[in-house]
Amino acid sequence: MSKTAFISTAIPYVNARPHIGHALEFVQTDAMARYLRLTGHDTFSLTGSDENSLKNVRAAQDEGISTRELCDRNTAIFQKLIPGLNLAVTDFIRTSSDLHIAGARQFWQRCRPEDVYKKHYSGLYCVGCEVFYPGDETGGVCPEHGTPLELVEEENYFFKLSNYQDELVRLIESGELRIVPDAKRNETLSFVKGGLRDFSISRSRKRAGDWGIEVPGDPSQVMYVWYDALANYITALDISDEDGKFKKYWLNCPRRIHVIGKGINRF
After folding, report:
1. Furthest-apart CA pair in the chain: how many Å?
2. What pLDDT, on the 0 to 100 scale, is given for residue 136?
3. Helix, strand, coil proportions of the chain in percent (round to 5)?
4. What is the spatial distance between Cα 165 and Cα 62, in angstroms, rounded to a whole number?
5. Is 135 helix (H, G, I), strand (E, B) or coil?
6. Neighbours of 200 (CB within 10 A)
7. Average model confidence (pLDDT) for the chain?
8. Averaged pLDDT for residues 177-194
9. pLDDT (tens digit, 9 = 90+) per residue, 70-100?
10. If you count Cβ atoms within 10 Å of the first and of the last residue's Cβ in the chain, which end, N or C, has fewer?
């Protein structure tokens, strides 16, 4: 096969057992992966588990077990969906695995120094979404979960996402970055054109419950879960080996497809 393709699911938090929504996304992705293979594409199909979140830490605390125990137990349940749903996946990436941790640290170090800075921050946070929300837009309540937001004040590293607003608009408008359906494309484009804020890419180790991937050179901080989790696509391909799977299924791959739910489109 001369044509290659890469396709992935979102990786679910493992603070609880899988539900029907996870099964739906996995089966939809698997159907597309099988179609790509039938049409002659050497296809890498990826799924996995999102383990470095504060919500996993708190779920473990509620049960009186370690975060590692909770992640190991619940991830094993998600992995059983592969034979249970007859999924033809190529790989399952755990974000607590050595491969992912090494790749996420390398991803951090590859960011341009001028795009990463550290500052004191105060904001309203939803643990369920694992995101800060502007207080003037929410009234102090999470728009997704309807729960009160927590006031968080600490020093974090930030990424200058605002530097990439024009480039993201160009990619979406040109179709080079294709988002379907059109309604979600328009929604995303409107969000980007509305002005991108720099966002925090780390959390204090203390607030993270001593769980997460340590920021290179700063043991007091761990990576923000969305920052490390979204690197799973390339860490699973081992970005340290640019002549192997990373080159074949990412750098030189003409078809990279991510199947995600509408709730995480912005991320």
Report:
1. 54
2. 60
3. 40, 25, 35
4. 40
5. helix
6. 22
7. 93
8. 95
9. 999 999 999 999 999 999 999 999 999 999 9
10. N
